[in-house]
User: What shape does this take?
Amino acid sequence: MVRTLLVRGLLLGLVAGLIAGAFAFAVGEPRVESAIALEEAAAAPAGHADHDHDHDHGAVVSRPVQKAGLFLATGLYGLAVGGIFALVYAGLRGRVGPRSEGGLGLAAAGVAFVAVILVPFMKYPANPPAVGDPETITGRTLLYVVMVLVGLAATAIAVATARQVGAGPWARWAAAVAAFLVPVVAAWLLLPTVDEVPEGFPATLLWEFRLASLGTQLVFWAAFGALFGWACDRAARVPKAAPVAAA
Assistant: This one.
């Protein structure tokens, strides 16, 4: 059964990754182009601001290749995440959450989005080109990883707390939400803030890029959760083959 779930997670993760790639291409790429144009204008020598500048000059990967590679990147991301999700789902079946296959798959995808994507994004949102100091990228990456670990740990604490509360469902939900928020809010308050937006960078462009980045992840997890839940629910409804009578 684990092998079947793993194959299912890999394939549906790939499909969801390509769907998210289409969203990122349509909504995110125009914001990336605008940010690159601002970066080039800021880097252009004085008196050459109006000169046509090719962003591909000196770049390791050209922009057309980067755009095509977007679908490869989101597809590989979907494969990896889908495989990991399927293994975690196999461990959760019958232990926590909704008892129906489809409901558990959709609920697990929603929780994963909140823990792994939304929690770190609220503290360290994505930045477009021309925003961020290259010399601090290692420190910023470590801080982001810390927030991902905090989100996962808070989820585990919330699930364990809900299982310990023997009262009604409302009390279990309240205890789980509180157990989740305490470490998350503490991390938000204690970890350092990173603000490297250069002066004069358009706030509207920054906001639209971040929404597009978060929207890409939301599209991926919504598509993957719906597809994975549907596939699991459909498999559970297929009647088992009758055993062959012994001759």
